[in-house]
Specification:
single chain; elongated; about 110 residues; 2 helices
Length: about 110
């Protein structure tokens, strides 16, 4: 492609872009000018969105209840763990001694 052909080809592309782009730009500007009126939304869509919002809120409440139960259970187990280890050590239950990783400096 020589330099003498670049100018006519680019001019033709610009003409095509203007002929196609100008009507599209006008249509987009009109659509933006009108905007979407919330009053134009169908009633069933509004009701559906309301139901979805209520369902999401109820799921959030249930998830919060589950997490509270999990925190409570974890707290009970962490408070009970030292007592269980101590009672097992007194009874001589194997495996009640603290775990030492093989190869660690304090392994026997």
């Amino acid at each position: 492609m020589g330099p003498d052909i670049i100018v006519p080809v680019s001019a033709m592309l610009m003409v095509v872009a203007i002929c196609v782009g100008l009507p599209l730009a006008r249509a987009h500007a009109k659509r933006m000018e009108r905007g979407i009126d919330p009053k134009l939304l169908p009633n069933d869509l509004t009701e559906r969105l309301t139901r979805m919002e209520q369902a999401i809120e109820s799921v959030a409440v249930e998830v919060e209840r589950i997490s509270e139960g999990q925190r409570f259970t974890t707290k009970l187990l962490s408070e009970r763990a030292p007592e269980a280890v101590a009672s097992n050590a007194q009874r001589g239950v194997p495996g009640s001694a603290p775990y030492r990783a093989p190869g660690s400096s304090d392994a026997r």
